Amino acid sequence: MSRQEHLHEHADAEHDHGHPHEPDHGHSHAHEPGHDHDHGHHHHGGFKGWLFELFVPHTHDAADSIDDAMEASVEGIRALKISLFLLLGTTVLQFLVVLVSGSVALLADTIHNFSDALTAVPLWVAFILGRRAATRRYTYGFGRAEDLAGLFIVAVVALSAVVAAWQSVDRLLHPQPLTNLWWVFAAGLIGFAGNEAVAIYRIRVGRRIGSAALVADGVHARTDGFTSLAVVFGAVGVMLGFPLADPIVGLLISAAILVLLWGTVRSIGRRLMDGIEPELVDTAQQALEGTPGVLAVPHLQLRWSGHRLQGAATLVMDDGVTLASAEQVIEEAAHRLKHALPKADHMVLTPSGGSIQ
């Protein structure tokens, strides 16, 4: 085995043992510039900024404390389970009101919420699949299944926006009288509250574990909540003597969903194209370059696979460094990198082709 191969293997092994002593080594996080980037690409202020953050939330948080892939998957599955049952409960309550009121608009919203609750299922399967060990065919593991599930969620949201628009146009052309408007009003609020609670929970957990797909599903629940709110506005409009309020609000909500969906499409698409947030690359670069014995890091690659980071880096060291000290430098660099980016797994660190004694 050559020295380079030996060091390469050593770096991989270094990362596989998981650094159980990390939480206690007391390094300060204050000096890590990557930790204040959470607002990195939010250049919007005021109401527009709030709206942007509402529907295109940041996916990750580099100062994350969850550095174990299994723990992150378990937390993701728990979020999906709880939110799935919460959404199904909301759907049952809404359906009871449909039976009392006979509201077609509310029935459409109820069916919509039920079908959307089921988008949690492929994501759940993806989280379970992502925990499987790598095979001879899938040598990088199955983390990418999560991003594919995110693509499926995007497709369902787009379809729901089209269906909602179609129903609204149909109602504009064929107006229908609404009865028991207060019940419809209450059921719309129930739908909004249930979906918004699920959205907040999924987005929070998705950000913490670095899952773009779970964040997308949270945004999905939020758009469903606003669809339920459209039912409320429609009921108020009818109460005020404007029967076309319901379908007009429905059309506006459909248009808003399609516009806001673009942010989620970009987020998921970037993941599938191995795109990475530049601030994470900066954080990794600074952690490696700050390692004693490392002169430069000319080559650095990072990519997401599900909610974990993978990558490789080349480290330039002093000429004439011994094999033993090169190993120590790589060990320390791997340790610092894992500390700066807790979601990093399988980072391959290799020394540049200088003269190692």
Helix and strand layout, with pairings?
Layout: H1 3-16, H2 46-55, H3 69-101, H4 104-117, H5 120-130, H6 144-173, H7 181-209, H8 212-239, H9 245-272, H10 278-289, E1 294-305, E2 308-317, H11 323-340, E3 344-351
Parallel strand pairs: 2-3
Antiparallel strand pairs: 1-2
Indicate how many domains the architecture comprises: 2
Beta-strand residue percentage: 5-15%
Helix coverage percent: 55-70%
Radius of gyration: 25 Å
CATH architecture of the largest domain: Up-down Bundle
The beta-strand count equals 3
| Spatial sequence of strands, sheet with the most strands | 1-2-3
Order of helices and strands: HHHHHHHHHHEEHE
Largest sheet report: 3 strands, mixed
Uncertain residue ranges: 1-44, 60-67
Per the CATH scheme, the topology name of the largest domain is: Alpha-lytic protease prodomain-like
Task: Give the number of helices.
Answer: 11
C-alpha termini separation: 15 Å
What is the CATH superfamily classification of the largest domain? Cation efflux protein transmembrane domain
Describe this structure in words.
- The protein has two domains: 3-36 and 277-351, Cation efflux protein, cytoplasmic domain (Alpha-Beta Plaits, 2-Layer Sandwich); 43-272, Cation efflux protein transmembrane domain (Alpha-lytic protease prodomain-like, Up-down Bundle).
- It contains eleven helices and three strands; from the N terminus they run H-H-H-H-H-H-H-H-H-H-E-E-H-E.
- 64% of the residues lie in helices and 8% in strands.
- It is elongated and about 85 Å long.
- It has helices spanning 3-16, 46-55, 69-101, 104-117, 120-130, 144-173, 181-209, 212-239, 245-272, 278-289, 323-340, and strands at residues 294-305, 308-317, 344-351.
- A three-stranded mixed beta sheet has the order 1-2-3.
- The longest helix has 33 residues, at 69-101.
- Strand 2 (308-317), helix 11 and strand 3 form a beta-alpha-beta unit.
- The chain is mainly alpha-helical and 357 residues long.
